[in-house]
């Protein structure tokens, strides 16, 4: 099986889905067979690629997972759409250990045809995020440069360590990504310094700047690289993609 990268953070609004969508697109452009799995009930990764949420989530549906893969406008990029069904969201979020194991097996058994799979997790430390982590080979954590960034990191890392300690877990720490970066703000530089001093080389050298083009791109059903290829945000995601590929 190829790389399975979980994009996770229990805090909302940190650029998690934006990172998943843009990184998936760039990996596909680089020639990797890539799948983006939308596990967030908000389904922003699905709409951000110009598709609609499904009536039932493929992880709950009885048919083989591969039958639910959707091709996108970008060559080499497929999507497993999310679902806003309250029943499915509840079933996924409150699954038992045996169900979580089944879901992890369901995921693992259908991902072998891809070089890289990115899983966009919900902003939660719940069972759905833990199931995704158990299915992954690495986890990438976007964090916003704000006052509570370190507090959120600590909580998330505790969950990651618990998953790593499970039998047969292959999860490793893929990296921490600083998002919504504004170098003119003193708080941004303070968070940057503290995170790098504490976590060292785990933190990506690339930072994702605040850029209106990054925010506008999903409304056009595409990545920022396709929407505004010369923007600061597009350049930053290209640099991030190269770092992620170098860490393989």
TrEMBL record:
It is an enzyme of class 3 (hydrolase). Its EC number is 3.6.-.-. The keyword Ribonucleoprotein does not apply. Residues 3-172 form the AAA domain. SUPFAM superfamilies: P-loop containing nucleoside triphosphate hydrolases. Pfam families: AAA_31. GO terms for molecular function: hydrolase activity. Keywords: Hydrolase. The keyword Hydrolase applies. Gene3D superfamilies: P-loop containing nucleotide triphosphate hydrolases (3.40.50.300). This is Soj-like protein.
